[in-house]
Structure to design on (343 residues):
């Protein structure tokens, strides 16, 4: 099994190839080969079309007594796909093609026939010129005359085309170049103009800003300055500007402001803190029915009893007419003093 794939076989030293018997095969023997149809053909028996490239199992044989420059010519036998009629064709090394021989006709052969006709005419002319020099002169004269006619016809066609379609390609190219150059110049001018306008707008804006700043400075210098208040909380108690002598702008003299009202603010009028505290009416001290008045005795007992008979409203903060705040204890003491005096 190891010798199945080797390239060289073993030949013993006493091997003699002359002793090998030769096969005696006929020279015109046929081989079965697989090929494709070399051209389009039509069967003469049934009219079936066989197209180029169709595969066949053909029989191949060498044509006897027919060579082209030492090259053998082969013949192929195929069968029609419809009627199984035999069709034969052979190689044509002279034209590097295949030649139809029997059983079918070749299609689309007009070009090949025209080429064969031209070759035949050329060959006949060469044979005539070979033996007749006057024929050579006549052929040359006829060829030159034919060339002149062809050139004249070509010139007439060119003139006719120029009349019908007068297109100046050079002028078109020149116009296109001028238009392109003009477009570039316009774009450049527009860019320069836009740049100039942007710079002008920026300059005008800068000048306007500087003018507005100068106007603001002049207005601030010409405007009268407000007198500085003593404390920041004076804004809560003063409605109008006052001069240093205590007079208001209208010329009316204001009452003297206490120090505690400057810091806290007044509780009366339309001040800022006037709405935060509700002003109550002053309460009168009326003895209740259950209370009894003691006779005058020691001062300490009278003060203590009077303090005990003070109503509950006196303990709350009471605001005076001038907006001042009094303490509940002072009110209690004043009521007790009045009662003692009356006794």
């Amino acid at each position: 099994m190891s010798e199945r794939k080797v390239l060289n076989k073993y030949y013993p030293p006493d091997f003699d190839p002359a002793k090998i018997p030769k096969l005696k095969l006929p020279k015109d023997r046929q081989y079965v080969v697989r090929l494709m149809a070399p051209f389009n053909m039509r069967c003469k028996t049934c009219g079936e079309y066989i197209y180029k490239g169709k595969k066949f199992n053909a029989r191949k044989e060498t044509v006897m007594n027919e060579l082209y420059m030492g090259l053998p010519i082969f013949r192929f036998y195929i069968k029609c796909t419809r009627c199984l009629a035999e069709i034969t064709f052979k190689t044509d090394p002279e034209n590097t093609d295949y030649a139809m021989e029997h059983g079918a006709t070749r299609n689309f052969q007009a070009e090949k026939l025209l080429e064969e006709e031209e070759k035949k005419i050329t060959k006949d002319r060469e044979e005539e010129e070979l033996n007749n020099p006057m024929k050579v002169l006549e052929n040359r004269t006829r060829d030159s005359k034919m060339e002149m006619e062809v050139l004249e016809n070509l010139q007439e066609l060119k003139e006719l085309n120029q009349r019908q379609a007068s297109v100046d390609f050079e002028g078109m190219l020149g116009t296109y170049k001028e238009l392109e150059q003009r477009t570039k110049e316009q774009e450049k001018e527009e860019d320069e103009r836009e740049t100039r306008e942007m710079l002008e707008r920026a300059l005008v804006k800068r000048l306007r800003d500087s003018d507005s700043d100068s106007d603001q400075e002049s207005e601030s210098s010409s405007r009268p300055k407000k007198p500085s208040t003593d404390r920041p909380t004076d804004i809560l108690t003063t409605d109008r500007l006052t001069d240093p002598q205590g007079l208001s702008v209208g010329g009316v003299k204001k009452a003297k402001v206490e120090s505690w009202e400057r810091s806290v603010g007044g509780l009366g009028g339309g001040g800022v803190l006037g709405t935060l505290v509700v002003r109550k009416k002053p309460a009168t001290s009326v003895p209740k029915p259950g209370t009894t008045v003691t006779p005058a005795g020691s001062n300490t007992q009278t003060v203590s009893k009077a303090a005990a008979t003070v109503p509950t409203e006196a303990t709350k903060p009471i605001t005076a007419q001038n907006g001042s705040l009094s303490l509940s204890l002072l009110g209690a003491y004043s009521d007790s003093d009045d009662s003692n005096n009356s006794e």
In short: Residues 39 and 52 are 4 Å apart (CA to CA). The longest strand covers residues 55-68.
